[in-house]
Amino acid sequence: MLQAIGLTSTPRRDLTSAVDDLTFEARPGSVTALLGASGAGKTTALRLMLELQPGRGITYFRGRPLHRIAHPAREIGVLLGDVPGHPGRTVRGQLRMLGAAVGVPASRADELLDVVGLQGLRDERLGTLSLGMERRLGLATALLGDPHTLLLDAPSGGLSLRETSWLFGLLSAHAAQGGTVLYTTDDPKEAARTADHVVTIDDGRLVADQDGAAFARTRLRPRVAVRTPHAARLADVLSREARASRRSVEVVTEAGSRLTVFGSTCPEIGEAAFRHGILVHQLADEFGDTGPGPVPRLAPVPAAVSVPVPGPGSSPGSGSGPGSSFRTVSVPGPARAFTPRQARAEADTTPTEAVTTPHTAPHATPQTAPHVAPDAETHTGPHTELRAEPAPDALGPLPPPLSARPVRSPLRPVRYELRRMLGVPSTYLIVAAVLVASTVLAVTLAHSGRTSLPGLLSAWPGLLPLPPAALGAGLLGALSFGHEFRYPALADARGTVPRRLGLLLAKSVVMAASALLLTLLAVVADFGVLRLAYGAGVAPVPDNWLALGTGWAGLAVGSAWAGLLAAGVFRAAVAGVAAVIAVPTLVVPLLQVALSGPSARSMAGLPGRLRELTWLQWPGQVDRWLMVAVRLMAQPVAAALTLSLSVLLCAYLLTGRRRRARWRPRKDRSMPSCPQVP
Predict the structure, then answer these.
(1) pLDDT category, 278, cuts 50, 70, 90?
(2) Phi, psi (degrees; rounded to nearest 5) at 344
(3) Which of 125, 179, 216, 303 could link 192 by a cystine bridge, Cβ 3.0 to 4.6 Å?
(4) b/e for 417-426, b at 16 or more Cβ within 10 A?
(5) Which tens digits make up the pLDDT trace of 296-334?
(6) Closest CA to 583 of 601, 560, 613, 553
(7) Stretch 465-491: mean pLDDT
(8) Bridging pattern class, strands 2-9 and 76-79
């Protein structure tokens, strides 16, 4: 069960709260609609429940607040607005990337693609998907962790009637398996058709908390739809009888042979038509202009069920009036629930005439989708005959539940980061651009003959702040915090951007490995192109190649980490790129000015002093490499990178503190007692 208690948003100064003291609950096994006009606070309420927005109040998911749930993705599935993602990533790659973050096997992505009907589009890019396909992908994302609760913000927005029917059929299937479904909508007709429970809010306050039947009865005007070839005659009969009995009955004649009757019931109209010998083709209840009526849930039936159906000699739609003849239709077979695939098989072997049970729920069946004619705009009554045909877009059942909890492993964030980086073409384009730019610059610098061998191999002219390999590594690091991170599914606990140190460590490791590989490829490419263009004498192997390689690798890794941390702090890739360029252009000149002048102290003898301090004895070669590292760190660019990384890491840790929604009772109201959130 989902329990939201005292949700109150924290507005800016001189503004009212978008959500004010909102308390409601969504029960398991049912679909709950959070209804309200645009701007009523529905989305804000969902964000407060997910602790994505600061405010007061608390939400319990099966008795536990969100920050006390060990594996949030296994408890809550979320779809807020559009499904963001890199337009170049494939549908399957997107689900696999998110599945790696959640901790589910890669096969889960293929199962969900089959469920939501995207198996044929698994290799399509996200930028080419239609709105309906994006919604299906968003629902698959919400179902990745096999959650108990689904929170969906306007899931049917912009969808066609066919896609909306499929969507709510799948949500009903999730609820039928014991899950909790809460979705927002601004359409009361949709809420009446699809929800078992409706919570109505206005200006952030609770207006009504009703079940589906009570909502349809009180918020939508009930009426009876009648189709008869003698519409004018039946309208006159109903009006005369209403005046005679002094009842308030309104009969509206519509186009064709249709009547809409307000203030009466199906039995009364059927009996009046029977008494006057008027043929009726259709007689059904409606609630306002709710469009196509919902198909009732098909409850398990016994071995044989007898349902009264009007016989040939009776008037269609007549009730139990005198002289009515009925015939009985038996539905053989054991009690069971049909899946869409089973329904297809049954449709080929069972009689074409089947009967549904009386209307028991206000939304479509979760796992069966009987075919409704396009012009069927009414609710099916208790004696309505339907054909047991599956909907054309009926899909398979929900995927099997996950059997085990995800294991907390350091490889999980690393696997996610690898899928994120290698799943988009921009990574490969950056690598290709770096290699091309590096080789072109190396050939150009060698032709002028005024560049030293280290500058040739790294393709680093004085005009560039950094060599191409370091700039490319910084760009890869800056793109690590992109728009695809703004997933509630990825926020392993709360927040729009995941800031767990484990994920930061995984990103740092992957970015360091990428920077080293990119630097190695660039140096090897430059070396090979120079020897190919000008001969072996232009690019000999330098004697201090190991020290040079270490310096280039440190520069590339530092640039990648600077872009990573800056993009994580400011939540923008542009900020990461700016931080990388600012190191040689701003920080290095500042350090040179601050440290200008002759050196008064020397670090000579540092290895010996360290050996005395630690009481350890190591080979003399270690002393040599230690001094090489000290000389590298003394370089202006290395010192600037070290200083920048230290500042960015501190800023990242400070800005990464999450702000949780806390329960603070209001003094001017009596609020229910609730434990204080630590």
Answers:
(1) very high
(2) -65, -40
(3) 216
(4) bbbbbebbee
(5) 433 333 333 333 333 333 333 333 333 333 333 333 333
(6) 560
(7) 75
(8) unpaired
Closest CA to 177 of 26, 360, 366: 366
CA distances (Å), origin 256, targets 49, 223, 228: 50, 18, 9
Q: Contact 280/318 with Cβ under 8 angstroms?
A: yes
Burial of residue 1 (number of CB atoms within 10 Å: 0-12, 13-18, 19+): middle
Does residue 659 have a pLDDT over 50?
no
The DSSP symbol for 402 reads P
Spatial separation of the C-alpha atoms in residues 249 and 261, rounded to whole Å: 7
Output the 3-class SS for 244-271.
Answer: HCCCCCEEEECCCCEEEEECCCHHHHHH
Contact criterion met (CB below 8 Å) for 357 and 301:
yes
- At residue 24, the 3 state secondary structure works out as strand
Phi, psi of 671 (to 5 degrees): -110, 150
Where residue 466 falls (left for φ over 0; alpha for ψ -120 to 50; beta otherwise) is beta
- Residue 197, helix vs strand vs coil: strand
- What is the rounded CA–CA span in Å between residue 580 and residue 471? 7
Of 414, 429, 480, 420, residue with least CA distance to 89: 420
Burial class (CB in 10 A: 0-12, 13-18, 19+), 450: exposed
The pairing of beta strand 22-26 with beta strand 250-253: unpaired
Question: What's the CA angle centered on 135, arms 197 and 417, to 5 degrees?
Answer: 115
How far apart are the C-alpha atoms of 218 and 192, rounded to whole Å?
11
d(CA 254, CA 441): 79
Q: Give CA–CA dist 112/204, Å, rounded.
A: 35
Reported residue count of the chain is 678
Task: Decide: 150 and 26 in contact? Cβ < 8 Å.
Answer: no
Which token pair is 58? 């608390």
Residues 398-413: tens digit of each pLDDT: 777 776 555 566 677 8
**Distance from C-alpha of 654 to C-alpha of 635, rounded to nearest angstrom:** 29
Measuring CA to CA, how many Å separate 382 from each of 226, 267, 284, 294, 446?
15, 11, 9, 13, 88
The Cβ of residue 161 has, within 10 Å, a number of other Cβ atoms equal to 11
Q: Under 8 Å CB-to-CB from 366, ≥6 apart: which residues?
A: 169, 170, 172, 173, 174, 175, 176, 177, 297
Q: Which amino acid, one-letter code, is at 241?
A: E
Q: What span, in angstroms and rounded, lies between the C-alpha atoms of 544 and 194? A: 73
Question: Is the overall model pTM greater than 0.85, yes or no?
Answer: no
